[in-house]
Sequence to fold (236 residues):
Amino acid sequence: MRTKITLLSLFLLTSTFLFAQDISGLWAIKKVLVGGQTMTPVAKWTNIQKDGSYQSGNGWLQNSEGTWTFDKKKKLYAPIETNGIKDEFGPFTVELNNDTMTWLREEEGMIVTVELVKINRIPQSTADQIVGLWDLKDATKNNTSIVNTIDPDNKHYIFIRWDRLYISRTSEGKRATGYWHIHGHKPEVTLLSHTKKNPAETWKVTVSADTLQMVGISDSNKGIEKIYKRIHQFPK
Fold:
């Protein structure tokens, strides 16, 4: 009887250890520390497949794929990208605890720490949330309303397209176009007008399901805040 109990306990311990070594699954990267400095990318994730492949991305944009190996004895995880630049820093040492995982390694003399948590779906990034049609509802400069000055006839809207182009209607009812670029580590968007005389404008953005807040942080728009409402058809 004692032998059976001992064997059962050993089986359970072995099963638990093997389960704990299973690093496969969909993981969100919650924090990246490089030499003590936080350098966490926006909505970064990696999907470690049981077949030895993996995919990674930011939000709904996949930007990496490859194969991986895991040395269970040494607890070393080595992703090998197949469509990018060769990683010269070697495998990560893994610390795994149920639904959380930490990667550690040295890069150019600095300790890199990556904290991950298991998730069920790919997260949205700021770039995913900002896409859509937005109608201007309010605008302030240095906390004073200017909406009646810059958009007296309520004509301005901006259409932020998935292909990194934007189309807006000015307060005069004219069409304006350009490119938009999202920062990889901060919720900041830069609008690059197709009209050469217009300077690039960078805005800090906060996005909810139906509201877009844009706060100017470049020289040309500093102190200006705009509030947009999501709409689903173009205004007349």
Summary: Confidence is low (pLDDT under 50) at residues 2-20.
